[in-house]
Write a structure and sequence with these properties.
Elements lengths: L20 H23 L9 H6 L6 H19 L10 H11 L2 H14 L4 E8 L5 E7 L13 E8 L6 H4 L3 H8 L5 H11 L2
Antiparallel strand pairs: 1-2, 1-3
Helix pairs in contact: 1-3, 4-5, 5-7
The structure holds manganese (III) ion.
Manganese (III) ion binds next to helix 1.
Amino acid sequence: MAFTLAPLPYDYNALEPYIDTLTMQIHHDKHHQAYVDNLNKAINGTANEGKTIEELVEAAGSISPAVRNNGGGHWNHTFFWESLSNNPDGTPTGKMADHINAEFGSFDSFKEKFEQAGLTRFGSGWAWLIINKDSGKFEITSTPNQDNPLMDVAEVKGTPLLGIDVWEHAYYLKYQNKRADYLKNFWNVVNWDKVEDRRHKAIK
Ligand code: MN3
């Protein structure tokens, strides 16, 4: 069974003006599609064919660079699209808010640290809010390229709750070199219901 690209869970223009329509079209239809196609090519006829995307990603250290990069790309982008909403809640509530306040002091302080993680990731990569695999605590981390915190090779491992793509292709058409502005505007489109759903599944 080859991997396939699911349609976006909203229209291409749904995240305007924070993430523009053309960026969403190219990002989903070209970039994400390419990760899916190249992943399928890389696993076709190998022992990795038939494994789930999670199985592939978790074994990143012992699979080929093509599977690591494109498998990570497929997992990360699927997660990213689902993290966004055209009808966002604005702020986390309930237990999600409790965890954020406990770990980072306040929602504003959390946002600042998350933006900083995205801003200081040199080159291409991702910033994440995770539940740390060892400590069980909420933590902000970042990964290079298409790596993610589920990977056995990640410096900081854990369950991702929220992530932002800081590759230039994610923001350059609208924001050019101003990655900081893209990070600030990200908060306008975060689907906190989805983030809470992930927290709930991770902490029963
Ligand atoms: Mn991307």
